[in-house]
Amino acid sequence: MAAEMSTGSLAMTHTYQHDPPVSMLVVKMEANYFKKATGLTYFSCTDGDTIRQTIERAFTSSQGETFRARSIGRNEAGEEVAEVFITWSFKVNPSRQGKFLRHR
Predict the structure, then answer these.
(1) N vs C: which end of the chain shows fewer Cβ within 10 Å?
(2) Residues 6+ apart with CB under 8 A from 27
(3) Which pLDDT belongs to residue 101?
């Protein structure tokens, strides 16, 4: 799904090759549709900074952290056709520490 990809790619840029690794999982999805999507539809998410902050909190917390990311779908005319919320869970996996290089 394009909406999930637009949010997940942002999360992956902040979790890639972290040591210890961070697992990420979609735990909920919600959608609002405003107009029939015909032709090419583009989804975008502008929550990158908040996703990064959530992942950083996961490093300092022994519990998982969640974030509800918003992705907007627009048609070729730039009209909003959908609003999708993807809730991601991030959790550090210390048992796999040392397997990957830390990337910042």
Answers:
(1) C
(2) 66, 87, 88, 89
(3) 46
Ranges of the chain whose pLDDT falls below 70: 94-104
Alpha-carbon distance of 33 to 63, in angstroms, equals 34
The pair of structure tokens assigned to 84 is 């999708």
Residue 26: strand pairing partners = 88
| Predicted pLDDT of residue 96 | 52
pLDDT value at position 28? 97
Task: Say what the pLDDT of residue 46 is.
Answer: 95
Note the pLDDT of residue 60.
Answer: 83
**Any idea which residue has 């902040």 for tokens?**
14
The answer to whether 81 and 41 have CB atoms below 8 angstroms apart is: yes
CB 42 within 8 A of CB 82: no
Instruction: Give the single-character DSSP code of 19.
Output: S
**Cβ–Cβ < 8 Å for 7, 88:** yes
* Number of helical (H) and strand (E) elements in the chain, helices listed first: 2, 4
